[in-house]
Known about the structure:
Blueprint: H1 6-13, E1 42-45, E2 49-52, E3 59-65, E4 67-69, E5 71-72, E6 75-76, E7 84-93, E8 98-104, H2 108-116, E9 146-150, E10 153-157, E11 164-166, E12 173-176, E13 193-194, E14 200-206, E15 209-215, E16 221-228, E17 239-240, E18 244-249, E19 252-254, H3 256-260, E20 270-272, E21 278-284, E22 291-296, E23 300-310, E24 313-321, H4 324-335, E25 346-353, E26 359-364, E27 385-390, E28 402-407, E29 413-417, E30 422-431, E31 441-449, E32 454-461, E33 471-474, E34 484-489
Antiparallel strand pairs: 1-8, 2-33, 3-7, 3-34, 4-7, 5-6, 7-8, 9-10, 10-11, 11-12, 13-14, 14-15, 15-16, 17-18, 18-21, 19-20, 21-22, 23-24, 24-25, 25-26, 27-28, 28-29, 30-31, 31-32, 32-33
Amino acid sequence: MMTTTRRDFLSAALAFGLPHASFAAEAAPELLPIACLHGDERLDAAPLRIEGRLPAGLRGSYFRNGPGLMARGGERYRHWFDGDGFVQALRFDGEGRVSHRGRFVQTAKLKAEAREGRFLVPAFGTAIPPRVPLRNADSMNVANTSVLQQAGRLYALWEGGSAYELDPATLETLGPRAWTPELAGMPFSAHPKQEPDGTSWNFGTSGKQMVVYRISAAGAVVNSAVFEIPPTAMVHDFAVSQRYLVFLLAPLTLDMAALREGRASMVDAMQWHGDAPTRVLIVDKRDLSRRRILEMPATFVFHFGNAWDEGDVIRLDFVKGEALPLINERLQAIMRGERPETHPSTPRFMRIELAGGGRISIEARDESVEFPVVDPRVVAQRYGQVFYPTAIDLGPRWGFNGLMKLDVETGRRERFAFGADTVVEEHVLVPKPGSSREGEGWLLGMGYDTRHRRSFASVFDAQHLADGPLARIWLPYTVPYGFHGRFYAA
């Protein structure tokens, strides 16, 4: 049942004020293809050149999303998270041929700024003056973070606003999706969890409020709730087990004065409180009104791998990152074309004992990783493997140049490194047709050769990762370094 109104929720989304700043355009970075598009590109290429041999059973579409536009009218975004969404599709026909297509998500923001030839609204990490009225959070929606296909309909996702529907065949934009009239315009995060039966869970946050969605395999909202949570400036991802939703609410606050006075963007106004706890919010999937909050030492998390229930214990994994202000310093340096030194984000495995007052224990590892994924057949179920991009022999330099498979129970790892001149993105697990064993499939994702400035996709046998890629698919152009993707079999 809805516990607050849509108007209240959307008002909270704009309560942080209207920051103001201007800046000169900067040179395009050399490390990553972050600013290689201008806003009107429509990329199409077929067939692509393949190095190696593609698996015969690999048939379907790999959709991925990321920031594609970083500059307009002499202004340049300062933060990687700000760019307008550019969705791409790699199509595998199962007979050794691959095609590529890329389109910008035609959000209301993108179309208005294209007409004006300049940025018009504030961005998450760049303080830009509002040059048009801001009606709601979708006024700033860049649809740049991930994708979801539900009941045959494809969506481009962003953290703070509506999902944007795309034609899955052409990638042309159809418009924002309202899941129900009551939920129209509410945030729909970029990290929905899609269970093996097709059910999807998602959430959105604004200020002290959170909305939770349960969506059926047929694409209908089965249940939803809006409720108050302890204050935190950012919740990016969550974990789903058989019975629970788990959120880690980091001790982040916003400097409201700096925002309203235009001295900082939203991300620059975030303040980390390392002496305060991270709160663990646990929501019962069967009854969204049944919620519980525990506490753990201050921890910042972007991404979770998976979760499962073991009696009255929830087991889950996540990647622990630096406190958000430090992460943003690295991301801003990358936008300047630098390769900053960084402290690695590293794997964590958590046990939440629900009996009694609740007890939390955490096992830490030291590999430099991010973007964890699991086999889609075990989402919200017991699982044994997590896959990550990883940094191998890069020293303190930023970036991921390899992939890692980690056995959850034994701690055994298997890795492959491309070398210091390659940067690797998230790779997803594609199950082999007809297989049932977890991890029996291929790892598929994008990469970038920094020496030759070329983009590629790579395909690995997930159970023989150290043997190297079965194939690399070379694009005839450079595409933007992205965030997240999903594969859907044909």
